[in-house]
């Protein structure tokens, strides 16, 4: 492993997609409280999954209210992920709808599991935001990211389509065995996708991703290059879900993810698009820090109070691996101890 080893980011892609969307908000081309169907007409006919009939047929009804851009950015839209949803897993099995990880457009026919704005549930909302960015900018997400984020920041090893030079530096993927050992195996995101997955399709390196995190830590700029205004970054790191709370995500597919809660016993909120710990974290980070992770056990946090950002990169399943989480905590504690 080096700072230029290539990792599949999975959900750490979401921070790029949120940044792209907020760039368009700054330009007045997107309004957070607009109905998302203004930009993506297919969202006007959203259906809520209420259960299944005796014969297994899904029971659907129209959503009670429209999905807004803010709903999508905060995971309050009603869209979920099958990895943490028994209901969506069953829906995929009954209907043959592909999972979002296949990068097939048919995955966007997924129903909502609740009416927009009613609760927080992690899901494919940021993939819809990726589609929204493409619609408003009239650019493929791969091109938009390269021109508006990666290129300006010098992130030469980041994107959706992996080149031959990066392929030689890809970290080996492993699965955790029952005995605690690691089993190597193949892993790669689809390289001829039907769409670029704004919720989880990108790759990057520790060097590149830390440059991006430093830009956010510094209010949207690093090395003399600005990608967002300070007030925009501040907004992204503020509670955007009101009285709703982020909660434990219960696994429906243990081979891919354990059940997890980053801050058990603590209230935490969601910004645009980050988990926010409202109390000091157990390993040193300040209240008001933001963080998230990727399915292959990559993690990051940004502490705007102590002006610290950190990240840890692995390529291991299932998510929230206890050994990796312990290492992540130890790394954070040592980093803050060094600042004391």
Automatic annotation (TrEMBL):
Beta-lactamase-related domain residues: 1-318
Superkingdom of source: Bacteria
Gene3D superfamilies per the UniProt record, alphabetical: DD-peptidase/beta-lactamase superfamily
Family matches, as InterPro entries: Beta-lactam-related, Beta-lactam/transpept-like, Diverse_Enzym_Activities
Entry protein name: 1,4-butanediol diacrylate esterase
Species annotation: Ancylobacter defluvii
């Amino acid at each position: 492993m080096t700072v230029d080893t290539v990792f599949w980011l999975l959900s750490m892609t979401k921070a790029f997609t949120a940044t792209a969307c907020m760039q368009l908000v700054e330009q007045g081309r997107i309004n957070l409280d607009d109905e998302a169907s203004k930009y993506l007409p297919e969202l006007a006919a959203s259906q809520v999954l209420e259960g299944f009939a005796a014969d297994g047929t899904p029971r659907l009804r129209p959503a009670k209210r429209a999905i807004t851009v803010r709903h999508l950015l905060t995971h309050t839209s009603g869209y979920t992920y099958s990895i943490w949803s028994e209901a969506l897993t069953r829906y995929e099995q009954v209907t043959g709808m592909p999972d979002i990880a296949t990068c097939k457009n048919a995955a966007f026919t997924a129903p909502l599991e609740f009416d927009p704005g009613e609760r927080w549930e992690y899901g494919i909302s940021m993939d819809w935001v990726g589609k929204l960015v493409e619609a408003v900018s009239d650019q493929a997400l791969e091109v938009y990211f390269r021109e508006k984020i990666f290129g300006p920041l010098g992130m030469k090893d980041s994107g959706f389509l992996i080149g031959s030079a990066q392929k030689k530096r890809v970290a080996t993927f492993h699965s955790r065995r029952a005995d605690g050992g690691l089993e190597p195996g193949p892993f790669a995101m689809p390289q001829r996708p039907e769409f670029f997955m704004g919720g989880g399709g990108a790759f990057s390196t520790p060097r590149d991703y830390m440059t991006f995190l430093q830009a956010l830590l510094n209010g949207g700029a690093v090395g003399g290059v600005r990608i967002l205004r300070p007030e925009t970054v501040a907004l992204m790191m503020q509670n955007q879900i009101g009285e709703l709370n982020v909660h434990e995500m219960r696994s429906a597919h243990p081979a891919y993810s354990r059940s997890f809660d980053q801050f058990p016993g603590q209230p935490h909120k969601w910004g645009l698009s980050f988990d926010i710990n409202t109390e000091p974290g157990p390993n040193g980070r300040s209240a008001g820090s933001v963080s998230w992770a990727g399915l292959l056990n990559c993690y990051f946090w940004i502490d705007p109070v102590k002006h610290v950002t950190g990240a840890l990169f692995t390529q291991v399943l299932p998510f929230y691996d206890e050994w990796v989480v312990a290492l992540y905590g130890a790394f954070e504690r040592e980093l803050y101890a060094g600042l004391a």
